[in-house]
């Protein structure tokens, strides 16, 4: 039996960090429920987990929509009877909406980026907390554990490559949400922590991974990885925060950045 046996974990997102975390949680004996708006990825992930003998299911949902977010959380609770942990990963780049330096932003670009990355996590968190508050505490006195995924760009910007100010603001909002909700719900036996990642090898980072300047920069800025971080390294940190090994930890922001925040490096852009 693994460290997460007999527990149910709701994961938002179905690729990258979410997919890696689902595999690790399942390997530790946890039940996995995936909420994502991409059915092909969700179905493939759940089939892969079930092939290992794990209990897994998924629900389609646009998590920026309150009704769909509520329905996804309800589906998880209905399927497995309880939600012991939430790993909120789903989000994405605001570049398709026009995210960039704030003086270039339209109101719509701001709103869509914040909705994708902050509104979605807040809506899922709210529904999960309502469920956890109604649950009987387990043998350790816990009603549940939450991990919200943030980004080092909220605190350690690199304007030469990542001047995406709405995205950074959305991740800063997540950091604040972690701290304030942890303070409110600790007395109810619910822990809330954040996981701030640097440049990780996920579908969202495809543009960066195809740009030689960004790849070369990552090799210097993230020396522990020598480039982009493997999503399984981030997922291992998430497993720790979701497990009893972190039972006395709440309201914290765990940074998994391969040295980004402590390494001085600037992009080497070729001179025309």
Q: How are helices and strands ordered from N to C?
A: EHEHEHEHEHEHHHE
Q: Sheet with the most strands?
A: 7 strands, parallel
Structural class by sheet pairing and helices: alpha/beta
Instruction: Tell me how many strands there are.
Output: 7
Average pLDDT across residues?
Answer: 95
Poorly predicted regions are none
Order of strands across the biggest sheet? 3-2-1-4-5-6-7
Distance between the termini: 59 Å
Q: What is the radius of gyration computed over CA atoms, rounded to a whole number of angstroms?
A: 18 Å
Count of helical segments? 8
Share of helical residues:
40-55%
Structure description:
With 272 residues, the chain is α/β, with parallel strands linked by helices. Helices cover 42% and strands 15% of the residues. The protein contains eight helices and seven strands; from the N terminus they run βαβαβαβαβαβαααβ. It has a seven-stranded parallel sheet, with helices on both faces. Helix 1 packs across helix 8, helix 3 runs parallel beside helix 4 and helix 4 packs parallel to helix 5. The longest helix has 27 residues. It is globular. It starts with 7 loop residues before the first strand and ends in a 16-residue tail after the last strand. The model has no long low-confidence stretch (mean pLDDT 95).
